[in-house]
Write a structure and sequence with these properties.
The chain is mainly β and 130 residues long. It contains 2 helices and 9 strands. It starts with 7 loop residues before the first helix and ends with a strand. The mean pLDDT is 96. Its EC number is 1.8.4.12.
Length: 130
Amino acid sequence: MSNIIKTEEEWKKVLSKEQYHVLREKGTEKPFTGEYWNNFEKGVYKCAACGEVLFESDTKFDAGCGWPSFYKAIDKSKIIERDDFSYGMHRIEVLCKNCGGHLGHVFDDGPQPTGLRYCINSVSIKFEKK
């Protein structure tokens, strides 16, 4: 369950149109267009909707998919993973536990040590440089 509860009208006031589409309507930005797909500076990635710290730059890698990819979340208790059967396929959706915002999906084709690839929309996160 999410800790932050807002109406859709409240979310529309605090998120850009693109952020709202991804975070609240489970949209996806086009690959290789997001702000962070090719960012490898040191820092942390926070939820764009609520500011929860979700990923560290040390776990980011180039998956060649066009979206920021991480092999682990900073703390699994800060995210929700759930089955997504949209578009006639089975994927695992990743949401921010604090606000319920849609972040992207996680796949089992990532590097070691986890073998996971958290494929996250740039618009759903904010980078804070260390």
